[in-house]
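Single Protein Entry

Contents — chain, fold
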Amino acid sequence: MRSANGWSGFAGRIVLLVIVCAIVACLPVHVAHAQGNGRQAIAIVVNPKSAVTDISFAELRRIFLGEQQFWPDRSKITLLVRAPVAPEREVVLNEIYGMDEDQFRQYWIGKMFRAEVAGGPKIVYSSDMAINLVGVIPGSITFVLASAVTPNARVLRIDGKLPSDPGYPLK
């Protein structure tokens, strides 16, 4: 039923257009994930002043699990973790933690309850936020899609490999 001024039909078309545009805007992300093995490489990024350039996958896992809380120079590690909606978070949960989202939450609640850590990972809501914060927080470490890495970001090698190398573990 149309209103007297005809705006309800127009407003409905505008809302539909906005929804269609939002869906179309998301398509490149889904297309990118459909290529190759279905996942993009995940880069591990550290604060540019960090002396660490290469770590083993086992050490990376200890850091992300909160078992290693200090870098070799004794500076505090600050873990920055993407929010649950980020596609790279699922890769990190599967490959590094070996957990699903619920297990991950319970894991960190347990560590904090037992006072094994002062606090859980800091949540970041975008790749830009992760890159910007890791650049200014000493000792920080985060993960982003390799395609989101900026020229001044410091990407760690894992077992001697960068995200673009064959055999890189976070793909």
Residues 1-7, 10-37 have pLDDT under 50 and may be disordered. The first helix runs from residue 7 to 34. DSSP finds five helices and seven strands in the chain. The radius of gyration is 20 Å.
